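User: Hi! I'm working on a homework problem where we have to compare a predicted structure to a textbook description. Could you give me the structure for the chain below?
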Amino acid sequence: MKETRISMGMPIEIEILGQNEQEALDAAFAYLKEVDERFSTYKETSEISRINRGEVKEVEMSEEMKEVFALAELTKEETDGYFDIRRPDGLIDPSGIVKGWAILNTAALLKKRGIENYFVNAGGDIAMGGKNAAGEEWSVGIRNPFKIHEIVKVVYPRGRGIATSGSYIRGDHIYNPHAPREKLSDIVSITVIGPDVLEADRYATAAFAMGKQGIEFIESLPGFEGYAIDAAGVATMTSGFGAYTRPS
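Assistant: Happy to help. Predicted structure tokens:
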């Protein structure tokens, strides 16, 4: 069973195979709605909006908010400051890490309900497990950022997480914290495969902010592979990325 619903400001696709599929889908989408209600910077009543207005003190934050803030701080340290949830205007926007975190938690929710075969896709941040309806490995298509309906590479993550960061769909929503006024124009997309979708997502965001050096950063990370496309349409991949371009 497959459904796509709008949540967290984007279409989220969930496909599952197993028992009580509708109940599992409803529970997954209900969880994602809760995440949006808590973390959306576009909702005045969300916890993050109240934090930005000074209405919620640090000791009053939910455990979920504290967890995301801790992940964000860790990522900032690990990426030499190229990942930062504090915007140039001083407000906090955790969206660069919340999506991967929420999708990872959604996958865990499905597994707790006995769903072993699943595919969760939120704007290019993808968690998967088991096999698809044909009994084959799940595959993911990397879009051509200049022709978004064209697939330039098909990968088989084999249960690992995959995330893509770029400017070709959502515009310039990522910035370099070290030079926030400079437009990121060196690359237009970077796809990262990592141990899980959260790990892939947080490093993909940071790597995109690094520009052309981002793919070198991914190369340096044990257990990660990446595929970047620059402004001239030239693709660069890490040394082990090719292993994921064919089924096992």
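For your comparison, note the following. DSSP finds six helices and ten strands in the chain. The beta strands are 2-7, 10-17, 117-122, 125-129, 140-144, 147-155, 161-166, 187-194, 225-230, 235-237. Good luck with the assignment!
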